[in-house]
Design a protein that fits this description.
5 helices; mainly alpha; single chain; Non-ribosomal Peptide Synthetase Peptidyl Carrier Protein, Chain A; 92 residues
């Protein structure tokens, strides 16, 4: 059985797991609903140091390694862009 078949709402789960990571990095528990997925992470308060923390948290949370060539401003611009990156890496 494929992972998608095991989880009836994989998009929901992945998105909410990412929101939880951003909340943790920002030290703003419960802020998820107020975080616009398309907003620039820098505008949400994610500094360069927090961005590294988010990247490492994503690797641990989703049990993946982000290749050096995927560590780009475009892939870490917003929650949506990080989600697209994670989906791509999980599908590979």
């Amino acid at each position: 059985m494929s992972p998608a078949a095991e989880d009836p709402e994989p998009q929901f789960s992945l998105h909410h797991r990412l929101l939880g990571l951003v909340e943790k990095v920002l030290d703003r528990p419960g802020a998820g609903p107020s975080l616009a997925p398309e907003a620039a992470l820098s505008e949400l308060g994610v500094s360069s140091l927090k961005m590294v923390s988010l990247m490492l948290s994503v690797e641990v949370e989703f049990d993946l390694s982000i290749p050096q060539n995927e560590i780009t401003p475009e892939n870490f611009r917003s929650i949506d862009s990080v989600e697209a990156l994670v989906r791509r890496l999980l599908a590979a």
